[in-house]
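Propose amino acids for all 443 sites.
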């Protein structure tokens, strides 16, 4: 069975792909759109017509007709100039001299049927345009000869029977569809009142959009009120600061204190040096005069060596005593808490140094200026007063919108009370659900 037909530069077809459906496939369209060219292409593929040069599209050099079957075969007819070639399942076949490949009819099953004497041929697959149905315009003897020799006669009768069965099935489906259409029309009559309900729904949607816009405006008004309150608080704070600063006098100018600090540091160092000298003098004053020393350099050398050895012995003795009391190697404590404490101490030290620097900078700062012009503050107060007036107008508009919302809700509740059943889906209407953000959901 043919699954795909591809025409390239064949007559009026530049590039056409046709995939026939199972059963019967019908090509429809206006005149001169290329329907007959598809039949001619299949005839040319099966018979290799010598006049196929005229089938090449105008101003093109090559024409191709390719057919793919459900068995997986692929047959292609190629006309290039005066040369015709075939390609069957990837195998190229040339020099046919007007003939066709030997296995072409076996693969496509579109060849002509010959009688027993092979003197007559019957083309049961193709017919000319506007020609009668197969064998209707032939004499009875030719029809008898065909049915006597054709191996496909039984298949043709079986096809006729299958066609009749499908015709009966289609007529039954037609009756069933007509019945369903009548039922659908009766059901559609139940929805004749939908236009009026649709108008009400559109009106309600329009009112809802207006109400939603009003709520958005009210929200913006409330935000503006919050901004005005914050501005009023900042105005009071600035007013208090201005009032407090207007009564202050300029602080006195400070002289540079760096020389004084240097002098105080030098005096402190001198006092410490004098205290140390006085302590040494008091200690040496009580001593007797030292006796004469014999060979003092050698004695000093021995004393220094002895002192160094005593220090080494004392250090090693302390290490031995300390190690004798240790039973096992002590475990190191968790140092993370100590590390965090050190980090916190370092941050505190840096913060303290920063505060000291800021304090020194503040000591050298100039005195604050005296407030002399309050016109800008008065203008700010005037703008706040104007915004408060506009806020009152917006508040009145919000109250009017709220009254409209209440009126629409009452109308919708009255409509739901009067029509408790939805005319579209037949489910029960709920006023709260209809007035909700999602609306009524049809069942």
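Proposal:
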């Amino acid at each position: 069975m043919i699954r795909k037909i591809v025409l390239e530069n064949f007559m009026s077809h530049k590039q056409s792909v046709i995939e026939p459906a199972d059963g019967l496939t019908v090509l429809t369209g206006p005149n001169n759109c290329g329907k007959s060219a598809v039949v001619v292409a299949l005839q040319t593929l099966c018979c290799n017509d010598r006049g196929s040069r005229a089938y090449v599209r105008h101003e093109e050099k090559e024409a191709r007709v390719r057919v793919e079957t459900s068995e997986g075969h692929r047959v292609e007819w190629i006309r290039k100039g005066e040369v015709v070639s075939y390609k069957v399942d990837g195998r190229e076949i040339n020099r046919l001299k007007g003939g066709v490949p030997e296995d072409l009819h076996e693969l496509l099953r579109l060849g002509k049927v010959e009688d027993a004497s092979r003197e007559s041929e019957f083309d049961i697959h193709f017919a000319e345009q506007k020609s009668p149905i197969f064998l209707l315009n032939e004499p009875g003897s030719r029809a008898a000869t065909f049915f006597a020799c054709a191996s496909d006669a039984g298949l043709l009768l079986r096809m006729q029977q299958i066609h009749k069965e499908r015709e009966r099935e289609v007529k039954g489906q037609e009756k069933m569809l007509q019945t369903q259409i009548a039922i659908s029309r009766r059901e559609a009559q139940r929805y004749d009142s939908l236009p009026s309900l649709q108008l009400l729904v559109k009106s309600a949607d329009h009112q809802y959009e207006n109400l939603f816009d009003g709520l958005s405006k009210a929200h913006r008004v409330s935000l503006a009120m919050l901004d005005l309150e914050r501005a009023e608080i900042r105005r009071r704070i600035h007013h208090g600061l201005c009032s407090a600063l207007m009564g202050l006098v300029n602080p006195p100018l400070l002289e540079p204190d760096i020389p004084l600090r240097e002098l105080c540091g030098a005096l402190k160092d001198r006092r410490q040096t004098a205290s140390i000298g006085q302590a040494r003098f008091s200690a040496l004053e009580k001593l007797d005069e030292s006796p004469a020393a014999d060979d003092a350099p050698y004695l000093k050398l021995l004393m220094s060596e002895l002192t160094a050895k005593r220090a080494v012995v004392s250090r090693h003795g302390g290490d031995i005593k300390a190690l004798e009391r240790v039973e096992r190697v002590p475990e190191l404590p968790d140092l993370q808490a100590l590390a965090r404490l050190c980090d916190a101490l370092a941050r505190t030290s840096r913060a303290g140094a920063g505060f000291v620097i800021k304090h020194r900078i503040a000591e050298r700062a100039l005195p604050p200026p005296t407030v002399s012009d309050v016109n800008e503050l008065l203008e700010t107060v005037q703008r706040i007063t104007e915004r408060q007036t506009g806020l009152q107008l917006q508040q009145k508009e919000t109250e009017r919108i709220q009254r409209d919302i209440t009126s629409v809700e009452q109308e919708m509740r009255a409509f739901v009370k009067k029509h408790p059943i939805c005319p579209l889906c037949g489910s029960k209407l709920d006023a709260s659900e209809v007035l909700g953000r999602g609306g009524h959901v049809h069942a």
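The mean pLDDT is 77. The beta strands are 2-10, 13-18, 62-69, 74-80, 83-88, 91-93, 113-114, 121-122.
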